[in-house]
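May I ask for an example protein's residues together with how it folds?

___
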Amino acid sequence: MSPGELQDIVLYQSEDSQADVPDDDRKHTMPAFDLDSWIAHYCLELGSPQPWKGGCKWIFEV
């Protein structure tokens, strides 16, 4: 099975599972997760993000 075929299956299953959810239930979703705020609050040692491929990244020490 090719990666494209797998992607088609995942997209189909995703669309199919959403079809069973009443519109009223879709309106009650969690707010978007703010990664910048979470890192600023819980990972103070990381500091500011660095530019990376049109977005940003943080470098964690391991």
